[in-house]
Amino acid sequence: EGHLEEYDRRLTALTRQAAAGRALVAGDLGPTGQAIPPYGETPFEALVDLYAEQAGVLLSAGVDLFLVESVMAMAEARAAVLGIRKAGGDKPVLVTCYCDDEGRTPTGTDVLACAIVMQGMGVAAFGLNCVDPAVAEEQLTRLHLYTDMPLIAEPSAGLPETLSDGTPAYQDNAVEFAKRVPSWAAAGVRIFGGCCGTTPEHIFELAKIAGDYAPRRLPAPRHITVLSGLEPLRIVPEANFVNIGERTNVA
Fold first, then answer.
1. Residue 84 contacts by C-beta under 8 Å, 6 or more apart in sequence?
2. How far from each other are the two terminal CA atoms of the chain, in whole angstroms?
C-alpha cells in the first residue's frame, strides 16, 4: 500500500529488460484477498476499482497483455476483467482459475461455468493454474467441448510433499513435466506453462515438446444457448422444461 505505482512501473521495466524483445510482457493480476457479500464485505464495484487502479498503472507502464490468475471466485474474475476495461485497457486478457479435483473453485463455482462467462466477456484465452497436472488434463478435456477460446494449461509440477525442514518437494522434474504435453494438447490446450514447483528448466523442456504440436483447431460456431452461474446450463431442444431461479419449499 502506498507503493503500487512505484513497484508496478519498476517491475514492468525489469521484466521488459529480462525479456529483451524475445517475449511479450504481461501485467499479472492475482487475488485481492477481498470478497463480496455474502462471503465478505467488499462491494463488487469496489473490487472493480481495486483492479482498475492496478491495471491503469500497468497499462501506462507499457504491458502487452494481462493475465488474471489464481482466480478463486467468479466475482473476482469478472471484477478483474471489468477493471481492466474501466482503466481503458483493450489489451488481450488471459484468465486462469484454481480448482479442486472436481473442477470447482474454492467458492464452489464449476470452472466450466467460469469459462462460459469469461468467453462472453471477451477474454482472449482461459485455463487453469496451480493445479495438479492430472486435474488440468481432466478438466481442460471437459472445457474444450464447450468453449471456442484457446485453452491454457499452467499446472504445478505435480503434488508437493513436505520435507522434514518444512519445504515442499514437487513430484515432476523438468523432463517428466514436459512428457505431459501430448495429453494436454489432446485436451485442446494451445498455451502451455507452469506454476508452483516449476523452474526455467521445466519451461525449457516444455517448450521443446510443445512446438511439435499444431495449435488446437477451434470448433465451428454452434447454435446453442449456454447460461452459467455456479453451474453451466445448455438450452437445447431436448432440455424440455427448465426451471431457472430459486424454489421455496414451504414445508
1. 29, 51, 52, 55, 66, 68, 91, 93
2. 51
Q: Is the pLDDT of residue 239 over 90?
A: no
Using CA atoms, how far residue 143 sits from 91, 127, 206, in Å, is 24, 9, 22
- Closest-CA residue to 106 (of 52, 68, 70, 146): 70
The model's pTM is: 0.87
CA angle 42, 48, 51 (to 5 degrees): 110
Query: For residue 233, what pLDDT is reported?
Result: 73
Please tell me whether residue 80 adopts helix, strand or coil conformation: helix
Q: What are phi and psi of 168, to 5 degrees?
A: -85, 145
Q: Is 52 left (phi over 0), alpha (psi -120 to 50) or beta?
A: alpha
245 C-beta neighbours (distance < 10 Å), count: 4
Comparing CA positions, the residue from 30, 93, 22 lying closest to residue 59 is 93
DSSP state of 14: H
Burial category of 171 from C-beta neighbours within 10 Å (exposed 0-12, middle 13-18, buried 19 and up): middle
Spatial distance between the Cα atoms of 83 and 100, rounded to a whole number of angstroms: 27
pLDDT digits (tens, 9 = 90+) for 17-55: 999 999 999 999 999 999 888 888 999 999 999 999 999
Q: Which three cell numbers stand for residue 140?
A: 481442460
